[in-house]
Structures are given as C-alpha cells and as structure tokens.
C-alpha cells in the first residue's frame, strides 16, 4: 500500500485542491475507549485536515476488469471531509499503548483516531506527534501525558465558544465566537460570552490584556432581581395589559390556582410591561418619562384603584409597585437638574433581564463600569471592600444619587462594616460609597422637597455586628416607616410585606432598592451624540486626572501596566466602551437601525475630536473599527449612501486616517495644534508612546506651516 | 470504479436546511435526524447511470454557516452542478436564496446547472414557503425546482439525477467543454482518448496518477 494515497487523490479527482500533503497515515477511527468505528486516512496539508476512506462497492462477478489509466490505489478511495485546520484542534491522546490522536472540532465534535498501518508505525507516530506539536505548539508537555483526557484537550487552536443568531439585513445568521482553549475555564467563558460582540473576534486577546483582568465570578441571575409574584390570580382579569412587551417575568409560586388554571409551570415566563396598563413605553426606557407633579399623584391614585378592585389575596399590585418605585426615583431625580447625568446611568450596573435568546448589551456596559473598579482589591484588610464581587456588580450605580452626601461618606473611615452595596462612580476607585448613603441622598432630597418630618433615615452608627442588610432593616423597620408612608400612604405595611416568600421582614426601602435594581434599561438610542460625547469626556477626564506622574514613572520603569491601576483603568474603560459600542450596534438587527446608530457614534467621535478629546475619540473609533463592525460591509455601504448627506463617512474616514497611529505626523500635528488651546484630553496611547520614546521627534516648525489649513478644517 | 464522466456537485444553502441529510440520503440511503454542524466541506460520491453511461457524482457538502462562508466560496470553483437548498419550514432560508445564488454565480462558471431544492417536504404542517413561490423563484432565475424530503427520501434521487441529466445534456449539446477542468467535469479513464493526443488541453495531465484530466 502506498504511503501517499491522499496526496494522489488530491492530485487526481480532487484537483481543485492544490495543497501538498505534509503527512498522511492510515488511522482507525475509534470511540474514546478505543472501540473501532471505521478506517480512515488522515492527511495534513498546510491549511487543511483531510479525511479519506475506502468505499468498496459490492462485488459483482464478471464486472471485474482492468481499466487502464486508473490508479488501483485510489480507485475506491474517496474523501470524507476536509476541515480547515483552524477549526480543528489536534492533540495526542495516548493511553497506555494506544497511539491515538484526538481531534476536537470547533463545533465541539470530538473524534479519536488510532494510528494504523503496519509499516514503520513508530516512525509515523513520532512524525504525527511532531506535526501535532507543530500545529499546537502551546501544549507540548501536557499533550504527551498519559493520564487524563483533560490534559490532552489543551491546544492552541480555536474553539467554538459560543454561537449566536444574528439577523443582518433581515437574514438570520449564526455567528460563532471562537476562542482559545484556556477560556474553557468556566469563569472566563461566562465572561467571554458576556462581553461578546457577536463575531469571531478578540477571543484570544482576552488573555493578552495587560491587565490583571478578573472576570466576575458569580454573576447574579435575573431571578435574583425579579419580582416574585406571590399570587398572580388577580392579575388574570384586571391587569391583562401588564402582560405585554417588556421584561420576562418569572413566576415562582407553585400550585397556585391561577397557574393550574392557565396551565403554567414554575419555569414558564410571561411578559410584563413595567409601566403598567395603558402606559405607552414609547421612549424605550423609563428614565426619560417626564414626571411632573401631576403624574405621580395621578398614577398613585390609579394604583390604589387597581388595588381596590383586586382580590384580597393580592392586596398590592406588584408591577404597579415596581412602576411606582421607578417613578419615585425618576421624579426626585428629575427635580434636581444638577443630578441629570445620563451616561452614568448608561454605565450603571443596571439589571436588564436577560432574554432567552438575545443577550443584554448592558452587561458590557455594566462591566465597563464595574470592572474598572473591582479589578483588584487592596491587600490591606482595612481598605478591602467589605462586599463580594457579586454584590458589587449587582448594584445600581448612580453617581448623581449621592452628590449631596459626598461630605459624609467619601472617606474610607466612614465605610460601614456590614455588607453594603456600592455604587460605581469615577472616584470610587479610592473612595467607595455605600448604597445606603446614596439612597439616603434620595431620602433627604425627598424630605426637603415634601417637607416631611425627618427621622427615618438617620445615619446609623450602632456597633452591633449584624451580618446582613436584611437584619439591619428588620430591626429598624419601625423607624423607616415614615418615609414610605408618605410615599405609599396606608399601604406601606402591605408594601413591606409584599414578598413573604423570600424576605418576609423586608423593609419598604429595601423593597424599593430591589425594584429599582430590577428595571432599568437605557440604550444608546436614548442619548444624542452630544450627550454621549460630553459624558464620555467627563468620565475620561476623571479617569485621566487620577493618573499621577509617579504612576507614569512606574509605567516607564517597569514597562508594564501591572502596577499602574489608573492607567489600566483608562485603558480598561476605553476597551469596554469600544466593546459596548460594537455590541450596541450589533444588537439592532436591521441594517437601517445599525447604520443610524453607527452614524450617531461617528458623530460622537467627531464631537469628541472637536472638543479636543483625543482619548474618547480614539475609544469610539476603535469601537467602530472593531472587526465586528468592520465586517458589516452592507451597513457601511448603507451609511455611505444614506448618511452621506451629513458627510459622516467623510468625517469618519478623515478621523480614521488621523487616528490610525499616534506616531503618524498628521496625528502629532493635529495634537500639537489642538493642545494649544486648553482644555484638551490626550490619548493615553499617545502619552505612553511618547514616554517610551516611540514617537519620532517632529520639528515644531513643520507643524507651524499648515496651521491655517488645519484650522479651516 | 471506472466511469465515463465525473461531475462535481456542490450543495449550498443556509445552515440547518438539511444539506448533509440530503447527501446522506443520496449516498447511504439513510436518514440521520441528529447531525453535527458541518465544518469545512464533506464529501460523498455515488455512481449513477445515465444513457447507459456510468457517471460518478462527486458531491461537496458545504458548511452553511455564515462563519464558513468565505471557505465555502472557494469550493464553488469547478462545480458542474449546484444544489441550492432551502427549508420550506423556514421562510428566512428562502429569503437568503438570492445571496447564495449571487455567490454561486459569481464564484463558479456560468454554465453551472443550479437546482433549487425545497427540503423537508414531509413537514407539510409547518410549511412556510409555498411550492408555487419556489417554482416562481426558480423560473425567475432559470433554475430547476424540486421539493424533496431527506427524511422520507422523496425526490432525493431525482434531484441529483435530474441535475446530472441536465449536465449530461449540456455536454451532448457541447455547452460544456469537457476538456476544460474548470467546468467541474472530468472524463473517466477509459473515455479519454482525447487526453493523450491533445496535450495542450490536458494541462499537467501527464504527471498525474489516474490520468483523468
């Protein structure tokens, strides 16, 4: 038997392939345990893995004849499949005396092949091992181990990490996310999926991040923050309107008559409109309803009328309550224009309930906010945050909520000892602020405005070591009633008892906190480009100002960002924003919507550039230039066609050229000109490059000449 | 096995429309309800007889996934026939036909016979695309249309064989230049009298083992 049958086959019948076979051998395809399935020939070409086998036709006597010109070696030889080599992870899978290879394909199919043949098996085995090592250089040692399957699965080629159905131009397509084997670590995988932007991108780069990137380990599930519907029977007739588009609404209660009647199971989901019946959620988010003095009382009376009609079993209408909580929150936020600060809202750790198929882009945004801060905890126990990461990432982070309490809570000494929930703020890196303090800010504002007697939200400084927030609220429940009574009237007691299943003694405040967490979604559509640009600038500014000269010295000295948390924070934030942009755009399935959003982001980049904010501009641009965006050829064509009137693409192309590399003279020239007028925000990469002497010295004289031209642009 | 002609087929269409199942039904006469996603390309081969001539069909079953689209494109080259498959229970697969057709026309030779196949005709109750729509689409784009079921094997043989017949007719009419390899047709070993005598057309035929070119 010849040793190059696959090569012969590729040269003859399948001459569309011009590949050279590097090595080929007969193999037996086996099960994992070594039971034979079929004989195959495997060949490796530089780009492909070729599988072939003999297909013998049934022998008919009398038809056996010699046909000249047919190579008998490959007469019955047929290809089975050809796989691109990047889709296969070959590894040595050798148990005891078996000389077996393991091929893991990117659709997670695993095949085992045991070397066959009778001539020079030892030599061929060594050759194969070498080839495998060559293809997967990362796992030289471990792949040879004979111990376990786990070690033999390590490899360097890409795995299919996740798939996602994306609709482009009305067409559903399956997008695959590939990544290295290492991300099979369950923590990382959740992270990758979390931050996924839909295409086969930056899977590997996760490991290459210069940061000590620690993914969130315990992401709370949506269930943790959903309302528990204790007895939904009254909803059946009256509040049908609630069951409309909106959030998934998971019901938990077993053996409810309503459930039996409707044939629902515990895991069934019904949808609910968080703004209640008859309220059109046209703005896409609750945050931008104009809530005036009239609306709130009116809505409350509505609530009560609904409640009165309801069954005795359900004294409180939970969706309505949630709505009220949002309204209260919005109302007091809206009354204070200084607190109007939408982008932190975008970056809040908001709880968008995850749908079954789609994924919430806010995850990325939330991560953008929270990862910056909780990447590493200080070693000193005094500075260590007294909460788990789980709590941290689950918080509603509201910069503006706590503005007035800064003086009280901005010191570490003041940090409470019991578990609290922290808010993300740009200055949180050093000075965390507890949720309680922040909410106290709301309460104070409320009390001031409504001139109610104070007393329910006095700062508590008792020394007993309550372990949970719930217990804290339980103890002080009586004292907390005042505020809630003012909000909910006589129903406060019922409100406080609305979730007997989980937290029977939960205080109304805790309830509001919970409901606030549950229902906040904002998208990029809710902000115009000016707002986005301004907010990005503000955040980038705050992050940038934290970078001290010492830190830069450390950076240059150590040539690594390991001990420079603030530089890392800027980079991480920039990275997250660009990912967020990509995922925001990809979330919309229609070409038109994507194009509009992309045009808006182009505007954002342009506006950032105009206000001399190089950092944010670079961030937004890298979001738009990410591979996931880049491959949207039709959408770009659409933009060029439909949004050309605004010259957005022209802007975009100009910016792309400009920001291609901070070492380019055009960039340096623009930067030089723009930095003549303060304020300006340089791009961190530019600074680092300058510090590391990567930027050639340009003569200022050469910049001077075209100033007139530049300023006219 | 000796054959008179070898036709290269390619099966294209969205993911999950049943391309691999069609191939399996045609080559192995069995149906496998659970099938892995195809990666790269898989092959099947079968001999059929047309006009008392043995014809070998070499069928390339491609990956329908978007991620593999660029790889798939490189396989169009040199295909004599293409089976463009959609799923009658999924409207979007029908909507994507134009994309696939553009792709196929762009990356293959113009004479390629394309057969439009509406698969899963056994799932009549879940039908989303009417047979008339498929017929209209085929008429509009000059394709041959057929509804098949890889599960019940209805029309599967016919689909492949009709395509082969059409190619064969085109060969008889002289539309296909059988000596031009790019057409996806190779002449079997005993039917290649022209090959040795016309070294100019065979390319590097002399160096190759089976001499099919």
UniProtKB/TrEMBL annotation, chain A:
Keywords: Guanine-nucleotide releasing factor. One of its GO terms (biological process) is Ras protein signal transduction. Residues 441-452 have a biased composition (Basic and acidic residues). Residues 441-474 are annotated as: Disordered. Transmembrane segments: none annotated. It comes from the Eukaryota. GO terms for molecular function: guanyl-nucleotide exchange factor activity. GO terms for cellular component: plasma membrane. Pfam families: RasGEF. SUPFAM superfamilies: Ras GEF. The keyword ATP-binding does not apply. Residues 528-713 form the Ras-GEF domain. SMART domains: RasGEF. The keyword Nucleotide-binding does not apply. This is Ras-GEF domain-containing protein. It comes from Aromia moschata.
From TrEMBL, chain B:
Residues 200-213 have a biased composition (Gly residues). Keywords: ER-Golgi transport, Golgi apparatus, GTP-binding, Lipoprotein, Membrane, Nucleotide-binding, Prenylation, Protein transport, Transport. SUPFAM superfamilies: P-loop containing nucleoside triphosphate hydrolases (SSF52540). It is a lipid-anchor. Residues 186-213 are annotated as: Disordered. One of its GO terms (biological process) is vesicle-mediated transport. It comes from the Eukaryota. One of its GO terms (cellular component) is Golgi apparatus. GO terms for molecular function: GTP binding; GTPase activity. Gene3D superfamilies: P-loop containing nucleotide triphosphate hydrolases. It is found in: Endomembrane system; Golgi apparatus. Belongs to the small GTPase superfamily. Rab family. PANTHER family: DRAB11-RELATED. This is Ras-related protein Rab-2A.
């Amino acid at each position: 038997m010849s040793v190059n049958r696959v090569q012969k086959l590729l040269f003859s019948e399948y001459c569309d392939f011009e590949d050279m076979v590097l090595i080929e051998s007969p193999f037996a395809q086996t099960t994992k345990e070594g039971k034979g399935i079929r004989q195959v020939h495997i060949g490796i070409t530089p780009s492909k893995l070729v599988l072939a086998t003999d297909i013998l036709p049934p022998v008919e006597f009398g038809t056996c004849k010699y046909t000249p010109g047919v190579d008998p070696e490959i007469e019955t030889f047929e290809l089975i499949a050809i796989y691109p080599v990047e889709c296969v992870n070959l590894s040595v899978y050798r148990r005891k005396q078996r000389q077996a290879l393991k091929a893991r394909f990117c659709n997670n199919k695993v095949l085992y092949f045991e070397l066959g043949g009778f001539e020079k098996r030892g030599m061929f085995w060594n050759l194969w091992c070498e080839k495998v090592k060559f293809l997967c250089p990362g796992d030289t040692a471990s792949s040879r181990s004979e111990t376990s399957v786990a070690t033999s699965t390590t490899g360097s080629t890409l795995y299919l990490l996740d798939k996602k159905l994306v609709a482009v131009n009305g067409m559903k397509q399956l997008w695959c996310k590939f990544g290295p084997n290492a991300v099979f670590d369950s923590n990382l995988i959740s992270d990758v999926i979390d931050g996924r932007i839909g295409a086969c991108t930056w899977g590997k780069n996760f490991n290459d991040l210069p940061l000590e990137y620690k993914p969130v380990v315990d992401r709370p599930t949506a269930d943790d923050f959903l309302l528990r519907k204790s007895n939904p029977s009254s909803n059946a007739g009256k509040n049908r309107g609630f069951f409309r588009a909106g959030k998934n609404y998971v019901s938990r209660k077993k053996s409810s008559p309503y459930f039996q009647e409707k044939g629902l199971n515990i895991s069934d989901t019904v949808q609910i409109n968080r703004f209640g019946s008859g309220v059109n959620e046209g703005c896409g988010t609750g945050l931008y309803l104009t809530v005036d003095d009239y609306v709130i009382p009116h809505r409350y009376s509505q609530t009560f009328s609904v409640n009165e009609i309801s069954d005795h079993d359900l004294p409180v209408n939970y969706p309505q309550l949630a709505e009220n909580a949002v309204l209260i929150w919005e109302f007091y936020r809206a009354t204070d224009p200084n607190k109007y600060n939408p982008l932190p809202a975008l970056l809040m750790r908001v709880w968008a309930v995850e749908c079954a198929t789609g994924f919430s882009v806010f995850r990325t945004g939330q991560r953008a906010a929270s990862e910056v801060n909780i990447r590493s905890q200080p070693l000193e126990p005094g500075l260590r945050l007294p909460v788990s990461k789980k709590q941290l990432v689950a918080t509603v982070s509201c910069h503006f909520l706590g503005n007035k309490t800064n003086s009280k809570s901005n010191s570490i000494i003041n940090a409470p000892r019991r578990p609290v929930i922290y808010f993300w703020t740009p200055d949180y890196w050093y000075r965390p602020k507890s949720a309680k303090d922040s909410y106290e800010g709301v309460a104070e504002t409320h009390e001031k405005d409504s001139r109610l007697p104070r007393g329910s939200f006095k700062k508590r400084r008792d020394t007993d070591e309550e372990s949970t927030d719930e217990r804290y609220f339980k103890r002080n429940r009586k004292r907390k009633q005042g505020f809630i009574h003012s909000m909910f009237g006589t129903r406060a007691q019922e409100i406080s008892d609305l979730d007997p299943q989980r937290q029977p003694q939960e205080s109304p405040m805790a309830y509001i906190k919970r409901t606030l967490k549950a229902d906040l979604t904002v998208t990029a559509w809710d902000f115009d480009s000016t707002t986005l640009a301004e907010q990005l600038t503000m955040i980038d500014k705050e992050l940038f100002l934290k970078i001290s000269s010492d830190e830069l010295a450390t950076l240059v000295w150590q040539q690594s960002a390991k001990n420079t948390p603030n530089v890392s924070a800027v980079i991480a934030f920039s990275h997250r924003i660009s990912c967020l942009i990509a995922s925001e755009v990809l979330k919309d399935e229609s070409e038109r919507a994507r194009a509009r959003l992309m045009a808006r982001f182009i505007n954002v980049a342009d506006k950032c550039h105009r206000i001399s904010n190089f950092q944010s501009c670079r961030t937004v641009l890298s979001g738009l230039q990410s591979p996931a965006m880049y491959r949207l050829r039709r959408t770009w064509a659409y933009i060029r066609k439909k949004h050309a009137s605004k010259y957005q693409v022209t802007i975009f192309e100009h910016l792309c050229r400009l920001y291609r590399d901070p070492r380019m003279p055009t960039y340096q020239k623009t930067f030089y000109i723009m930095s003549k007028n303060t304020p300006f925000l340089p791009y961190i990469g530019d600074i680092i490059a300058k510090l590391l002497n990567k930027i050639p010295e340009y003569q200022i004289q050469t910049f001077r000449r075209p100033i007139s031209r530049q300023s006219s642009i | 096995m000796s054959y008179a002609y070898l036709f290269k087929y390619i099966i294209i269409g969205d993911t999950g429309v049943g391309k691999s199942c069609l191939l399996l039904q045609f080559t192995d006469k069995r149906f496998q309800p659970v099938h892995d996603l195809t990666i790269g390309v898989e092959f099947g081969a079968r001999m059929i007889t047309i006009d008392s001539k043995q014809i070998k069909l070499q069928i390339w079953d491609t990956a329908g996934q978007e991620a593999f689209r660029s790889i798939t494109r490189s396989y169009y080259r040199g295909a004599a026939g293409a089976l463009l498959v959609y799923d009658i229970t999924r409207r979007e697969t029908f909507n994507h036909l134009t994309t696939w057709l553009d792709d196929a026309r762009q990356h293959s030779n113009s004479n390629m016979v394309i057969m439009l196949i509406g698969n899963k005709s056994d799932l009549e109750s879940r039908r989303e695309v009417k047979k008339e729509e498929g017929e209209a689409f085929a008429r509009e784009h000059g394709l041959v249309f057929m509804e098949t079921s890889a599960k019940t094997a209805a029309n599967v043989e016919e689909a492949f064989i009709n395509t082969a017949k059409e190619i064969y007719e085109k060969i008889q009419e002289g539309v296909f230049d059988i000596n031009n390899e790019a057409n996806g047709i190779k002449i079997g070993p005993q039917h290649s009298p022209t090959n040795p005598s016309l070294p100019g057309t065979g390319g590097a035929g002399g160096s190759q083992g089976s001499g099919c070119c």
